[in-house]
Amino acid sequence: MTLTAPPQTPISGATPAPVPPRRRPRAGAGPATRTLISTVDLRRHRGLYFTVLGLTIAVFVLVFLVPLYWMFASAVKSPAEYALSTPTFIPHSWHPENYATAWSSMRIARYFLNTVLYAVGGWLIALIFDVGVAYALSKLKPVLGKILLGAVLASLMLPASALLVPAYLTVVDVPLVHVNLLNTPWALWLPAAANAFNVYVLKRFFDQIPDDLLDAASIDGAGKLRQLWSIILPLSRPVLGVVSIFIIIALWKDFLWPLLVLPEPEAQTLSVALSRLANTSQVPPTEFMAGLAIASVPMIVVFLIFQRSIIGGLSAGSMKG
Amino acid sequence: MAVLTARVRRKIQDNLLAYAFMAAGLLCFAFFSWYPLVRGVILSFQQNNFVAPPYWVGLDNYRALFDDPLFYTAWRNTLLFTGLALVLGFVLPFFIAVLLNEFRHFSGFFRVLVYLPVMLPPIVAVLLWRYFYDPGNGLFNSVLRGVGLPESQWTQSSGTAMISLVLVSTWANLGGATLMYLAALQGIQGELYEAAELDGASVWQRLRHVTLPQMRFIMLVLLLLQIIATMQVFIEPFALTGTSNPDTITVLVLVYRYAFTVNQDFGLAAAMSMLLFVVLGAFSALYLRLTRTAD
């Protein structure tokens, strides 16, 4: 349950789309895709084009990059330099040890490892559970399958916030088994698996795999589990990749749900701990900036590595229409 | 007869197997999605503090909500936030996408940059901006001072608190909408523009009569998604202005207060959630209808 997730990808056509070409053909390198303004016109007004392009680059760098640069740069300043009323753009003092101090004194290490544990465990559980549901609904077609699919999809309509209080109470005292999951990883892992979007995307992909393949395997004596493992999953690598990335990102970014179910500082995620430390501790701003930077680095790295899948998966939803 | 029982047994076996594959996942849905919905409805009609046994109170929780002045403040603030966030977060990405789509250079660079803030954990973005908003030596006031403009109290004055929340929220989220618009723009057939141009349509007319109609569907989808997301705003008020600031208290913040901080009253919180659910459920249903029929 990602209670604070950004707008999800629309469910239509969320099967991994053909990733858009990384670069559009350069001007002059053959016929480019026709857009609002033709390439001929753009070339005719080359001066204007490059002025607008340059301005846009400048604005983008200023708006989207400078704040992040500020975070990384402030973290290496001395507290005195940070407090200057005319801030320095390039740090004069150089204290990279602020990162190390933050890592140990704010106990970032602990929260970082917690978050990794929650993200990786939640990813595994959500993937295994959701593949199981999608596979059964798509290929084994049990009785009541249609109704169950409907019930799963209906939960897409439930805004996460509407379930906040009762879901919290479920974690405090799980029905039937009566265990308390507060402050345990299960409080994040199990709700993460109840993700209708994943089930829907996976099932749609499995639906496209011809049953003949499975029948052939079945004649060769492969059981259902074997068919899933040896035929469906290898064929589904692209969709598994996209779903995995989105599960991990959602778990790493989630805030409100971990805030509720992890009251114990020892068990908290980096996000929750940072929010608590922002209000309670006497950490100098430079060290706190280092903490914020450390929390962002994994996601920035994931993004830079998987940017094509992420942007492609996000764009896939809007291909139709 | 023997054949029939064999087939029936086979069928039962297949079904048992199928349910074995689904069991773990379905239990998660049952515990964290279906059951909480039912329980939320029940809870909203109960007095329940988890010490004394719960008892039925009918509509008392809802009545208590309507008697709470914060209830109206929270809805007003939430609608204000949603409205402002739409003006910025819905319209701006459209124009950014149209602009970016015309560039023949650096298109990968623009995409990465606009989406970078979306990748930050939201609390990081908000806490970072908290430093920027610092009325003393925060980045924004330093810059304003530097260029000789009047400084602002940002989150600490009731006049600017809400817009400050909207600004950081827009910064952190507009990348998603921009990329989705961009993908839709690339799906528009080039011939349409060619034909319009041959007919003498100006750039503005082409934007108005070719681009806009082609984008109608995705714009509607994004509009619904943004309404649903922004009405559940929590992190921005929680981390920037606190949970008791009447200028920025939102519906979800109030739910949090009712259940976990001030009131410790889960029935009241559940009732508030139900109202939010009814409002958002209408938008979600519309959204699902649109996207599923388009398949």
TrEMBL record, chain A:
Swiss-Prot/TrEMBL keywords: Cell membrane, Membrane, Transmembrane, Transmembrane helix, Transport
Family annotation (CDD domains): TM_PBP2
Region listing for Disordered, in residue ranges: 1-30
Membrane-crossing residue ranges in chain numbering: 48-72, 111-135, 147-168, 188-206, 227-252, 288-306
Major subcellular site: membrane
GTP-binding recorded as keyword: no
Gene Ontology cellular component annotations, sorted alphabetically: plasma membrane
Family to which this protein belongs: Belongs to the binding-protein-dependent transport system permease family.
PANTHER family in UniProt: ABC TRANSPORTER PERMEASE PROTEIN MG189-RELATED, ABC TRANSPORTER PERMEASE PROTEIN MG189-RELATED-RELATED
Protein name: Sugar ABC transporter permease
Organism encoding this protein: Actinoplanes nipponensis
Automatic annotation (TrEMBL), chain B:
InterPro entries, A to Z: ABC_transporter_permease (IPR051393), MetI-like (IPR000515), MetI-like_sf (IPR035906)
Protein name, entry field: Sugar ABC transporter permease
Annotated Gene Ontology cellular component terms: plasma membrane
GO biological process, one term: transmembrane transport
Subcellular compartments: Cell membrane
Membrane disposition: Multi-pass membrane protein
Domain ABC transmembrane type-1: 75-287
A Pfam family assignment: BPD_transp_1
Signal peptide: none
Keyword Transmembrane helix in annotation: yes
SUPFAM superfamilies per UniProt: MetI-like
Family per similarity comment: Belongs to the binding-protein-dependent transport system permease family.
Regions crossing the membrane: 16-35, 79-100, 112-132, 161-184, 217-235, 266-288
Species name: Actinoplanes nipponensis
UniProt keywords, alphabetically: Cell membrane, Membrane, Transmembrane, Transmembrane helix, Transport
The keyword Zinc appears for this protein: no
Source species taxonomy: Bacteria, Bacillati, Actinomycetota, Actinomycetes, Micromonosporales
